[in-house]
Amino acid sequence: MHKDLFSKPLLEKELKSIFVPDVGDWADKVYNHSSEDMCNIPDNSVALAVTSPPYNASKDYDNNLTLEEYLGLIKRVGKEVYRVLRPGGRYAINIANLGRKPYIPLHAFFYQIHIEQGFLPMGEIIWQKAKGASGSTAWGSWMSAKSPRLRDLHEYILIFTKQGYTRPDKGKSDIKKEEFMAATLSIWEIPPESAKRIGHPAPFPVALIERLIRLYTYKDDVVLDPFLGSGTSAVAAINTNRHYVGYDIDKNYIKLSETRIAKALKEKMEKLF
Length: 273
Ligand SMILES: C[S@@+](CC[C@H](N)C(=O)[O-])C[C@H]1O[C@@H](n2cnc3c(N)ncnc32)[C@H](O)[C@@H]1O
Known about the structure:
Rossmann fold, 8 strands, about 20% strand, alpha/beta, eight-stranded mixed β-sheet, about 270 residues
């Protein structure tokens, strides 16, 4: 019965029959425009899209859209991600839920949107960012059943795939045994990155994206981040010998990502020689 809710995965021979273009000069670049239109990237060319969308929670890059407008943006970007992903390509979306009165389960809305678009859900990672938290419980509810407030230690990483659960092509995996064992568990404990250190309000830790890349892609694959921010996904792709491509609407974040990319490339060259 549940199968009716989801798109039907293609057979391996159908997946194999879809043309996947070679990596071209559209890759290893960052683009300063909205990922609602990723016309630079050909269809069926990206192995992994990994992103943390703007949370619409009054960070300085947020436009304070209504929930409906915000989900409209997520849908338009999701449609483009679906187009550019190769058969068996994955979309990993990092999302935190918001608020308490009401609690807005953004991850539930994200499931609905992406399943409707044809993505196949293939798992969910709880990214545990801290072991404990100090901080606010509402005044008058301390150690009382009056209105206890949950304090989130986690965010979600939702994993979707396009057209099939299995990559139909062959490639070189480079994940080590210990990392594979840890990465295939559904709870990942990785400390967050400092916003101040990076110069962006919500940077990913590089280690988080490197792990996703090694788990879900082959060497030399293309990794896309449609909401690139400070460029962490591109840095992680460089560090793991993958190609990158990214979008951000803010030119200052594009500049920041270009600086971080240049540094990562320099460090990689220095290690080689
Ligand atoms: C949560 S941040 C991403 C941070 C990133 N993961 C990092 O490691 O720095 C979301 C980013 O999306 C960008 N953004 C917002 N709307 C966008 C759009 N329509 N297209 C592309 N980027 C957008 C914002 O400027 C912001 O930098």
